């Protein structure tokens, strides 16, 4: 059962963040043509997309190997097994939410590619919802890890 929940967590995360959000941005933008895109815009978008995905994937692998858990936790509800250790190094050395930072960067790349105010609006709404999620998760982490998490917050940015 644990492996199934873990698989479902990864599948849901991938579908939501990598597929659904860009699709919503594209639909909200009026379904613009995806090609051709200007060279400079395409280069910037690809760098952001690949950089964001790389950071998110690094964080997922790190979380699995070092934290012995899964990233999928939705507003205090454990979708898949949570990490058992507070992680403060690796990608977590740079900020407290590297996976979300990677996802947000990836989606900024999508906004640059689409280059519409509607895509930017979808990104802003997504960011607002994720900020609420992060604040909820921070409360849980304070309960789970106490002073260790509070000290980590003092020395490391949220994003």
Question: How does this structure look, described?
Answer:
This protein is an all-alpha fold and 159 residues long. The protein has one domain: Four Helix Bundle (Hemerythrin (Met), subunit A) (Up-down Bundle), CATH 1.20.120. It is built from 4 helices and 2 strands. The protein has helices at 2-28, 39-66, 98-114, 117-155; strands at residues 73-74, 77-78. The chain has a two-stranded antiparallel ribbon with strand order 1-2. Strand 1 and strand 2 form a beta hairpin. Helix 1 (2-28) packs across helix 4 (117-155). The longest helix has 39 residues, at 117-155. The radius of gyration is 17 Å and the shape is elongated. The N and C termini lie far apart (33 Å).
Multimeric state of these chains?
single chain
CATH domain fold name: Four Helix Bundle (Hemerythrin (Met), subunit A)
**Global morphology:** elongated
Radius of gyration, whole Å:
17 Å
Strand content: under 5%
Give the number of helices.
Answer: 4
Number of strands: 2
CATH class: Mainly Alpha
Span between N and C termini?
A: 33 Å
Helix-strand pattern: HHEEHH
CATH architectural grouping: Up-down Bundle
Estimate percent helicity. Answer: 55-70%
Weakly predicted, low-confidence segments = none
Provide the structure class.
mainly alpha
What is the overall pLDDT average?
A: 89
* Main β-sheet description: 2 strands, antiparallel
């Amino acid at each position: 059962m644990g492996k199934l929940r873990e698989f479902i967590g990864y599948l849901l995360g991938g579908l939501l963040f990598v597929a659904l959000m860009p699709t919503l941005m594209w639909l909200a933008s009026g379904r613009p043509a995806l090609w051709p895109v200007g060279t400079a815009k395409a280069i910037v978008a690809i760098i952001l997309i690949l950089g964001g995905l790389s950071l998110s994937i690094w964080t997922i692998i790190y979380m699995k190997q070092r934290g012995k858990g899964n990233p999928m936790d939705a507003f205090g509800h454990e979708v898949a097994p949570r990490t058992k250790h507070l992680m403060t190094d690796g990608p977590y050395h740079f900020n407290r939410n590297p996976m979300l930072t990677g996802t947000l960067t990836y989606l900024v790349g999508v906004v640059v590619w689409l280059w519409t105010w509607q895509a930017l609006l979808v990104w802003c709404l997504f960011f607002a919802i994720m900020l609420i999620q992060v604040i909820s998760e921070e409360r849980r982490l304070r309960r789970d890890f106490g002073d260790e998490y509070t000290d980590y917050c003092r020395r490391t940015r949220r994003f």
